[in-house]
Write a structure and sequence with these properties.
The protein is an all-alpha fold. The chain has helices at 13-21, 29-39, 54-68, 86-93. Pfam families: DEAD.
Length: 94
């Protein structure tokens, strides 16, 4: 199945609303390829040019996981995002 809109993905309504508020309605090629297997809990490895939405390709499934499995009590971090440079870390944080 080819994903043509974010609404076709199994994302929480809050995530879909946030995407729409930012003007994103259609996933890029890397997002359409990476998000479905990531949502299924599979590992993904992707490569795409700068500015094509790789960050959202892994963050949206990570955020969905946090929403699907809310923390019952405090504990260690459940998701760790590593970046190779400080500049990229700042972009991801934004």
């Amino acid at each position: 199945m080819t994903v043509t809109t974010f609404s076709e993905l199994e994302l929480d309504e809050n995530l879909l609303e946030a995407l729409q508020d930012k003007g994103f309605t259609r996933p890029t090629a890397i997002q359409a390829a990476a998000i479905p297997p990531a949502l299924d809990g599979r590992d993904i490895l992707g490569s795409a040019p700068t500015g094509t939405g790789k960050t959202a390709a892994y963050l949206l499934p990570a955020l969905q996981h946090l929403l699907d499995f809310p923390r019952k009590k405090s504990g260690p971090p459940r998701i760790l995002i590593l970046t190779p440079t400080r500049e990229l870390a700042m972009q991801v944080a934004d």
